Amino acid sequence: MLKDRQELPYGVPGLRVALGEDGIAVLTLDRPEKRNALTRAMWQALPGLLRELAEEPGLRVLLVRGAGGNFSAGADIAELREVYADPATADDYHAVNVRAEEALAAFPHPTLAVLRGACVGGGCQLAVACDLRFAAPDARLGITPAKLGIVYPAVPTVRLTRLVGPARATYLLCSGELVPAATALVFGLVEEVAEDVEARALEFARILASRSAQTQGAVKAVIAAELGGGDPRAAVAGWERASRTAPDVAEGLAAFIERRQPKF
To answer: In 10 A of CB 132, how many CB atoms?
Structure first.
């Protein structure tokens, strides 16, 4: 997945990002010795990193993966003991955590989480913030605050509920149990399960990269408005106006008539 991709200079410890000529970027959670547990510094760095990445010329799709055999085991528990020793520190930690999640959810291009092994707690929170999730058969997904006595913030609770429905969100959040990839597929927590999940995710990312960014941007805007309580019609209006002069429609129709692949 990282082959022939150039690492970009604004990674930070625990987060690496690389971009290929195919327009597909790969964000790697990179603490394999800790099962890619997320530190406060990683949460804090994510919004800025994603802002810089969004401005990269030619970027079309973002894949989010974990180094080694896991996506992420969640928050760094050793760090959490210090965080929860002070209520003010805990509040600040949750605010940083939610800002990172919201930055990923608002990324302007399609995002796809590539899940192997542990996808737990904050790791699952990031996966849910992506547009799509593809899992390996060995993936185990869950959100575990109920095992720690932590109150899960409202923003990720609502996002999970909208994805899987209230009963299944209750199942996951109130039990803290991990579910296998096959169950996650039934729950609607992942879209596909594949033996070679990285190859399948890259294959699908290339399909996304070949489609109209104009269409995809409009889709993301409408869905975000609907889920956020906004006005979907207002969200799509600017995209509709832009489409009247943008080249995508002309190219798409010409390609269909000429029986060839469009070049968006």
So the answer is: 18
